[in-house]
Amino acid sequence: MSAGAISPSILDVSNLTVRIDGQLLLSDVSLSVARGTLHAIVGPNGAGKSTLVYAVLGQIPFEGRILAHWRRNGRIGYVPQSFSVDRTLPVTVEDFLALTRQNRPVCFGVGRAAARRIAAMLDRVGLAGFEQRQLSVLSGGELRRVLLAHALDPLPELLILDEPATGLDQTASQWLEDVLLAARDRDDVTVLMVSHDHERVKRHGDRVTVLDRCVVADGAPADALA
Amino acid sequence: MTPFYAWVTSLAHSGILPADFQYPFLVRGFLCVLLLTPMLGGLSHLVVSRRMAFFSAALGQAALTGVSIGLLIGEPLNSPYGGMFGFCLLATLGMIYVKRRSSLPPDTLIGVFLALSLGLGLCLLVAVTRQFNVHQVEAVLFGSLLTVTDGDLLLLLAVGVVVMVLLAREYNHLLLDSLSPPLAGVEGSDSRFLDYFFAFLLALSIVVSLKIIGALLVEALVVVPAAASRNVARSARGYLLWSVAVAFVAGAGGLIVSNRYLVPTGAAVVLGASLAFFVTLVAGALGRDALGRMARGRQAAGVAIALVGLVLLANRLVIGALLVGAGAYFFKFGWPSARDQSARDQ
């Protein structure tokens, strides 16, 4: 992904094709993500939604062009679809969040400045006091909140979430929705989200791309999901 | 180094240090343990986190093949480092390269490399034993204190410093990459670089550890301390401290047992580490109830260390005094992580 000139869109994907082990996962996908919007990617299982995300993140080889137009820090916040933690791995929530927030190796301890910042981050996602909990004992919902706290600090220009509501109950889903809308409306964060929840996307999404290895529909939620 | 050995020997003769230290080879062995344990303990917990235990076993076998190659091309029996490091590096690059490009599971691929290097090593070993006494080669297989020289110590010191500095520099990236490669990638880590980088450090550490631990057992010291540590550690810091502590206790204990009962050093060290694993397994299980919580408490730790210190004080003044001091410190201040936490709570 490369940075381009000032543009109303933050991300332009052109003619993206992905093949893994000779298998075609995405074919000639083109889409544009407008700045300051909530853009949803929907589609059936195996449609290539996560593959698109991996390509945007530069994690897999692809053909075509992905162009980002940064105005602020150019930071991407990312919440992965799955984050399995080895049950016996002795890493606390504070250790995990400190990995990218201090230069000192985390195995030598977490510095005071990083600890204060992490406490504030956890407070923001409703997990105050969770610093010394081990990652491996967190529930799916708590782990998603930790990942979201990580993605939102420092405030990213583009927030990418891969099926963030998976495994969340109704209350947690509502909370997540509020956080994402606040990030978009208050902090001018562009949100690119893979989702299965068509109703929620229709309610709050600004634009939807329907994928099934290629772009099936792209436009306003009411039209694209009709 | 001779004046240093003479000084340590005089301390042993006067009863300040245990009688074992009157032999310079044992002093060298102890210095080896002091240098090896932070390095292997530090690597150990990342080896387990990155699921590279089997990989390090394969590197141990590759080192054996490397020794044979080194001897066959004319390197001295006492320091065939060129052959060892050369072949280990080749095996490391090969394994990582194929692992990153093949869709086969990593353990299957490493198994293939392990079989290949072991088969090659055994064939070459037969050729080597035509030129050398088999008992001389045995020292490479199982580790021997008698063959450690001052040159080996200096090499170990240099490599240990380089490995620890490089490891500290990339530690956070390595741990995040082992937790979630995509997340690490977004944060700017290069997964391919980290794979090769860590494997290179591991190969380097294994090569310089061979003379004391032996080719067949070195992987155990790279895996068992971290496995034992996982039973009791509750944070990344605890994970490192316990790994280093278990490696040190196993190393120092194995050294003394090996000297007193004439068993191979590597085997004694690995048995010590395995014993530590089962002790921590029980302690970890107990840690889930009240007894375990008490055992983890700072007072209990402080009193236990101080008691051991008092017992030793009668015969070994320096070691006893150090342990009494350490016990008093923990009793007063607790474990470092607990202290940091209480400071933050305030």
- What is the makeup of the main sheet of chain A? 6 strands, mixed
CATH-derived architecture of the domain at 2-82 and 158-224 in chain A: 3-Layer(aba) Sandwich
Order of helices and strands of chain A: EEEEHEEHHHEHEHEEH
- CATH third-tier fold name of the domain at 2-82 and 158-224 in chain A: Rossmann fold
Mean pLDDT of chain B: 81
Based on helices, strands and strand pairing, what is the structural class of chain A? Answer: alpha/beta
Alpha-beta classification of chain B: mainly alpha
List the total number of helices of chain B: 16
Largest interface: A-B, 39 and 34 residues
CATH class of the domain at 2-7 and 20-220 and 227-250 in chain B, anyone?
Mainly Alpha
* Largest sheet, spatial ordering of strands of chain A: 6-7-8-4-9-10
Q: Do you know the CATH architecture of the domain at 2-7 and 20-220 and 227-250 in chain B?
A: Orthogonal Bundle
Main sheet summary of chain B? none
Strand content of chain A: 25-35%
Quaternary state of this entry equals heterodimer
Helical segment count of chain A: 7
Give the total of beta strands of chain A.
Answer: 10
Percentage of residues in DSSP E strands of chain B: under 5%
How far apart are the first and last residues' alpha carbons of chain A, in Å?
32 Å
The CATH class of the domain at 2-82 and 158-224 in chain A, by name, is Alpha Beta
Tell how many strands the DSSP assignment of chain B holds. 0
